[in-house]
Structure formats: C-alpha cells, structure tokens
Amino acid sequence: MTCPARLLRAATTHWVAAALFAVGLALRVATALSYRPALFYIDTIRYLYNSGGNDPVGYRLPLKGILWVGNFDLVAAVQHLLGLAMAVAIYATLVRRGTPRWLAALATAPVLLDAYQLQMEQMVLPDVWFEALIVAGITVLLWKPGLPALRYAGAAGLVLGISATFRQVGEVFVVPGLLYLIVASRGWRATLTRAGTFGAAFAVPILVYMTGSQVLVGHFYLSHSGVTTTYGRMAWSADCAKLTLPPVERGLCPTPAQRANGPDWLEHSPDSPIRKYYEGPLSARASALVASFNDAVLRQQPGRVLASYAADVIKLFSIGKITFPGDTPVSRWQFQTRYPYLSPHATPAQVLPAIASYGGGRPAIWRPGAEFLRRYQLGGGYTPGLLLAFCALAGLAGAVIAVIGRSRPAGVRPSPLALACLLIFCCGAAVLLMSDVFEFSWRYQLPALVTLPPAAAAGLAEIARRARTGRTGEPGTLPQASEEVSLGH
What we know:
Blueprint: H1 3-13, H2 15-34, E1 35-36, H3 44-49, H4 60-69, H5 72-96, H6 101-113, H7 115-121, H8 127-142, H9 150-163, H10 174-184, H11 188-217, H12 228-237, H13 256-259, H14 263-268, H15 275-279, H16 286-300, H17 302-313, H18 348-358, E2 364-365, H19 367-378, H20 385-404, H21 416-438, H22 452-469, H23 481-484
Helix pairs in contact: 1-2, 2-5, 2-6, 2-19, 5-6, 5-8, 6-22, 8-9, 9-11, 10-11, 10-21, 12-16, 12-17, 20-21, 20-22, 21-22
C-alpha cells in the first residue's frame, strides 16, 4: 500500500480526530499569520537575556536553539507544532488504552481548538513546552498497556522531571507518577523497582539544573522565588486588624486599596508593602520577616487562607473567562486587533531591540485574521468551565475506580483504562491545585486542557465498559514476580 493510500485509510478510520486536527491546524496557521513575528509577554525578556524573574529558566535552552537557526517566526511555528503533537499523543494514548476513537478524538478538541491555547503557542513563554512535557511524560508511562517496564518508568520520570526546569510547579508530578506506579504494580519488588526508577530519573534533571545554578550563580536552587512567592496569597487572605504581629512586621500588612490589587500585585508590584523591606534598612532580614508574617497568617487565620484558596480553585469552572477582583487581567491572554505591548517589560523599548537581535521583522498584525481570532475567542472559542467541571468529575470517578481496584485479587489485571484515568487526572489535579496555592491566573490553568478532558474520556470509557460487561476488572493474570522486575518487561 502506498503512503498516500495509507494516509487516506488512516484519515478514514480516524475521521473525527482527523477533522478536529485539520481545524486545529487551520487555526494555528491563521494565528501565525495574524501576529508577527510572535507575541511578547512581561516575562519574555528574561528568557532571552536571563534578566531576573522567579521561575526556572529551562525554557532558554530550546528557545536559544531555535533562535540560533531561525527567528521568532520559527519559535511560534515550533510551539504550534507542539500543540498539534500533544493532540496526536493524547489521541494515540487513549485509543491504545481502549478508549473509543470518537471519545478519544473529542478529548483532543480543547488543546486543538481553544483560543487561549492558540494565543499561548504564539507567545514567547515556556508554558506550551511545559504542557508538552506533561503530555510526553504521561504518554511514555501509559504506552505499555500492562505493567510499565522499568525503561518506561525511567523515561517518564526523566521527562516529568525536566518539566520542573521549565516551571517549578512541575516538581509536583513526582506524586501522581509514584501513585500510578504503586496502583499499577503488583508485588512489593515490582512496586519498589518501578517507583525507585521513576523517582531517581525524576530527580536527575532537577539536580543537574541545580548543580549548574550552583556553578554559574552560586546558589543550589531551581529558582530564587523564596518566601515572596507565598506572600501574595497570605497578604491577600489576611485580616490584619485581627492579626497579632510584632511591630516590625506590621508594615507587611497591605492597606485595603493595596489588597484589592490581588496576590500577583502584592508579590510583584514595586508599590507593594513588601518592597520597602527588601530595598530599605531591613533588607538583610527581609526574607526572615516575610516568612514570619506568612507563618503568622497561616497559623492564626487558616480559615481565611483556605477560603481564598478554594475560591481560586473553583474559578477554572466559571461560566465565562472573566477577570475576577484582584486577578491578573484575562485580556493578557486574549487576541487583540493591534500588536499588544505590556508594561513594564514588554514595551516597544524592549520588544524592538530583541527582534532586531534575533529576527522576525517589525511587529505587525494581519488585521482580518486578528479580528477573526478575537471574535472566535470572545464568542465562545474556548473550553467552557462547566465542561471542565464535568471532565474533572468524570476523571475523579475513573481515578477512584482505579484506586479501589488496587484491592483486587492478585490474579486479576487492573483495568488499563482506569489506570490511565488515574495518572492523567492526578497529574492535572496536582499541577492545577499547586499553581493556585500561590495565585490564580488563566495562564496557569492551561494544563487543564491536556489533562482533564483526556482523564474524562478514559474515565467515561471505563465506566461504560464496567456497565457493559458487569465486571470490575479486565480478565487475565499478572506476570509472575520474576517477570515483574525484569528490565525488559
């Protein structure tokens, strides 16, 4: 059979996925043509020049590599290809695990069609690479439907560990990875060898990054965010009138007007109360004082902290994409009908010299395309919050089935669908819940697109399978203990 014939047959067999992929490709072409050479965010400059910032800078490696052979047009093109590749990986993994093709295809619709995803792929930021590493790690760990071989566990640990060098919140993926391996394995030797291999591989890229940080800047860390990262959350949550503090820490309490600006402003603004501590006579003690303030808020007013955190968690499931009081404006993640600049670090004064250095042409838009994309985005071209809520519930149900199935008799295989749901859902829940600990931003909710819908697809397929067969697990037997710990199986 010739190559075109094989492609036609594949497109016919997987026609729902192919149709969605074609629309996703067309939207990405429109995005790349509409905003040239790429979109800059406030953080973009530091990934180009390593100038400040609180997150790891692992993104600099692929970014500099792409710019070495091309320009900012190529950066955006590669990130759009990553978006398409994520959809292919999600679809292939779900189908391989037993999800019906039509349902697996629908699970790719959010990453293919969501305008907020398209806008992020056009932006010079690490978020799309972070999403791609999540999907790659999940795909590797789930690729073998039975017990994951040691080489798969190690490769998945390595990939998910690398994600932490792009965004530090990726450190949390060690938890769902280990949970999946514990539930999927049978026998203590198989469990320990796979979990140990995953954990060791996960630590390698993080330790390599931190060693490089020690050599280059003298600090053994992933980032230097420190206690300021949680100050925004604590100051936003605190009722300072009822808070018992030493006089020296009282200045960290925001005024009502300052508090109204939200956690991101409190953490980063030059007008935040925290700045006078780091820039004034107390600078030598600033971190200790901020840590003490954070601890006081958490100890004395845990209910307020939990309430503000819970309010941020449920924002993902809101009916529309809006800017809630105190949040980063959602307009930063929306297509504009002119080339967008952002103060203070993505103004023409920063953007134009960067493009002059790396290429791509003067910033410009193709107005018909920009107007279409904005209408599409604001007119419903995004994944609704209520749909994500349904996906979260379906994913949770499938994950619970997998955990309950851990108590099956030793001779019954765990369901590949339930196990897939467990891993995907827990990865999504972990990264979203951890991100919201610090602050809510629509930017940090994008991993939901590549985790919650696929988890829901696997969960719904497992529920349907159980209802259809009346069985609680797949028939069959597990490998013997000697096979479970084999390096090749």
